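Bug: token stream looks shifted between consecutive jobs. Job 1:
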Amino acid sequence: MNNAVDSKLFLKDNPTLADFQEYAATLVKERGFDHETVAERFMLLMEECGELAKAARKSQNIKSDANSKTYHVDEEAADVFIYLLHICNQLGIDLEQAFRAKEEINKQRIWQ
């Protein structure tokens, strides 16, 4: 596994969603997470979603355990995004294409 100095990770300015997916694919290999199963990654995604929810609660001053770890909403949102990218890559999903296709379906729905 490479250390930060040897990192091959690079994300250009104004990246596309495909750039993020490519970055995540490199990140997984570089950090030694390329042997995780989809189930393992899904559980990690759910864990990060919980941390995002807790951070959001704290940011909105919703009552919570005063002794619990302090979370940063932006960092937790980024962690959720990273795990989503990992799962999409592992399942061969082009997230941009999937987003566009799903939005075409959603545009036909009547929202009340």
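Job 2, same session, no restart:
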Amino acid sequence: MSRPIETEPVGVPDTQPHFLNAAVVGDTALSALDFFYALQEIERAAGRERPFPGAARSLDLDLILFGTKIIAGQPLTLPHPRFRERRFVLEPLAEIAPDLRDPITSLTIAELLARLPPAR
């Protein structure tokens, strides 16, 4: 698990408190879809509500990569469709798995992070 980093909210409709972001890499016997549903259940158990897209949330668990699996559809798209442009995803992930490869671009997490504009 990476250390948590504090970031300003990105892509949300109103003023929200800063977020804490972290990454975890591990193994599971679950399928990608079952793991995705397990993450949603953890969010629900922690009191997460989804009144509208971008609403403030107490917990947001995203499945970014699942090995080399590529899924295009609903309710799950893998790799996560916007992870390559999100410093708040790539920085903590690069801390623990810089050589992990994006199955679509074949770039490593470190290479994807290096392609982003400098942090403000």
